[in-house]
Amino acid sequence: MRNIPLFVTLGSPLGIGMMKRVIRQLPEFPRPPIAEWINGLREDDFVTLGRELETSNLGFSGIINISRDLVEEDDKHAVSAYLRSRPICASIHAAVTDG
């Protein structure tokens, strides 16, 4: 099994129903193999419905939800709003540079 230092989801509740079916088959998910999971979401995005990924809707805890300090974009689904977020970028940078 591979170790995954960082798993990032942006602007999506991951089809919570679908993920619950997958996770039931992987009782150790997300740790291991995922060391850290960051989920970026906009509260005004109808896809996420402003819902964070958490124990009550996904079945396990430890996901870091980031919804603050996102750059405003006309397109609420634009990935650039997430990729300009300092906390999201800092986490990605740390994961790919080992620190």
Describe it:
This protein is an alpha/beta fold and 99 residues long. The protein has one domain (7-97). The chain has helices spanning 16-25, 55-58, 79-83, 86-97, and strands at residues 7-10, 37-40, 64-66. The chain has a 3-stranded parallel beta sheet, covered by helices on one side. Strand 1 (7-10), helix 1 (16-25) and strand 2 form a beta-alpha-beta unit.
How many whole angstroms does the radius of gyration measure? 14 Å
Global outline: flat
Q: What can be said about the biggest beta sheet?
A: 3 strands, parallel
What's the N-to-C terminus distance?
23 Å
Low-confidence runs of at least 5 consecutive residues: none
Number of strands: 3
What do the pLDDT scores average to?
78
- Reading side by side through the largest sheet, how are the strands ordered? 1-2-3
Order of helix and strand elements from N to C terminus? EHEHEHH
Alpha-beta content class: alpha/beta
**What is the percentage of strand-forming residues?**
5-15%
Q: How many structural domains?
A: 1
Number of helices: 4
Q: Report the helical percentage.
A: 25-40%
